[in-house]
Design a protein that fits this description.
It comes from Paenibacillus mangrovi. This is SDR family oxidoreductase. Keywords: Oxidoreductase. GO terms for molecular function: oxidoreductase activity. The protein is of the alpha/beta class and 284 residues long. It has a single domain, classed as NAD(P)-binding Rossmann-like Domain (Rossmann fold, 3-Layer(aba) Sandwich). It has ten helices and seven strands. The protein has a seven-stranded parallel sheet with strand order 3-2-1-4-5-6-7, sandwiched between helices. The longest helix has 29 residues. Bound molecules: NADP nicotinamide-adenine-dinucleotide phosphate (NAP). NADP nicotinamide-adenine-dinucleotide phosphate (NAP) binds next to helix 1, helix 4 and helix 6.
């Protein structure tokens, strides 16, 4: 009889809510033992409750994991090595989204944004690579964004962090391919998860600076996009599907409007694409 020790193992960072929580459930439903990385352990109950409702709670373990903390990252990797001796899939999902106009965003916000979305992902990847490399097997799924491909006014900190994730992932894919480790980037458009309430609604502009009119348009556009965004479960299902594929592609963008926008950027001259983006924003 197969025991849980024989099942494929996945680690998902940022599992307390949104995509991360849903990805844990979808992976467990597909037969993975899932290590749910959680920054604030008081939210672990919600993860286990959701897993119980889905009938997969026996497949979920929770670990304390703030990706900005070296000690948490190292302990989580050591726990996985010790308990399972394997890690088949890492989903680098943890993230925050800070907005603001570049002239106004304070240095500490830039640092915090990069520390979570970029350096946190680097830390986690470095910590698990030895285990994957030794087994010559592994898959690293990077939660990027349409903001990792297209810059938008008011999205400076967030887009910069996701563009960094994209560059890192291109290098990583070439470095790890000889060791049987593949890297996949997922680029969702706007979906209605809690992320927008945490960062973007705090976006403000200093009185006296001429950004107010554009800020109003950006906030209206972002709120509309998030409200109209699809069901976050389609992103979670895609990630779980990628985890199971024999030969996944390198990039997946969703929904269709995101794919079309990314294709338009690649096909059009840069200035023309900027004009189109500005006119879309002007209509918000
Ligand atoms: N929603 C969208 O429209 C969208 C679109 C494209 C890409 N994404 C990306 O999808 C990922 C998940 O976001 P989401 O939309 O599902 O938002 P979410 O519900 O806010 O989830 C973000 C998760 O990351 C965790 N987190 C934040 N800082 C962390 C840290 N330092 N260490 C560990 N975990 C941390 C959060 O934990 P706490 O509960 O403790 O805050 C939460 O569990 C992010 O990388 C985001 O950039 C989202």
């Amino acid at each position: 009889m197969r025991s849980l020790q024989d099942e494929p193992v996945a680690l998902v960072t940022g599992s307390s809510s949104g995509f991360g929580l849903l990805i844990c459930i979808e992976l467990a439903l597909r037969g993975f033992v899932v290590i749910a990385g959680i920054r604030r352990m008081e939210t672990a109950g919600k993860v286990l409750e959701t897993a119980e409702q889905a009938g997969v709670h026996t497949r979920i373990r929770t670990v304390q994991l703030d990706v900005t903390q070296d000690s948490d990252v190292k302990q989580a990797a050591a726990y996985i090595k010790d308990q399972f001796g394997r890690l088949d899939v890492l989903v680098n999902n943890a993230g925050t989204a800070y907005g603001g106009f570049i002239e106004e965003v304070p240095a500490e916000v830039w640092l915090e944004q990069m520390n979570t979305n970029f350096h946190g992902m680097v830390r986690m990847t470095q910590a698990v690579l030895p285990l994957m490399r030794e087994r010559r097997k592994g898959r690293i799924i990077q939660m990027s964004s349409i903001s990792g491909r297209i810059g938008f006014p008011g999205y400076g900190p967030y887009a910069s962090s996701k563009f960094a994730v994209e560059g890192f992932s291109e290098c990583l894919a070439l470095e790890t391919e000889p060791f049987g480790i593949d890297v996949v980037i997922v680029e969702p458009g706007a979906y209605g998860t809690p992320i927008w309430e945490k960062g973007f609604t705090q976006m403000s502009t200093t009185s006296g600076l001429p950004y107010q009119a554009m800020l109003d348009k950006v906030l209206a556009f972002s709120q509309k996009s998030a409200q109209q965004g699809g069901d976050p479960r389609e992103v979670a299902r895609l990630v779980a599907h990628i985890a199971c594929l024999k030969r996944p592609a390198f990039r997946y963008a969703l929904p269709r409007s995101t794919r079309l926008t990314i294709r338009a950027k690649a096909a059009l001259p840069g200035r023309l694409f900027q004009k189109i983006m500005a006119s879309v924003l002007g209509r918000s």
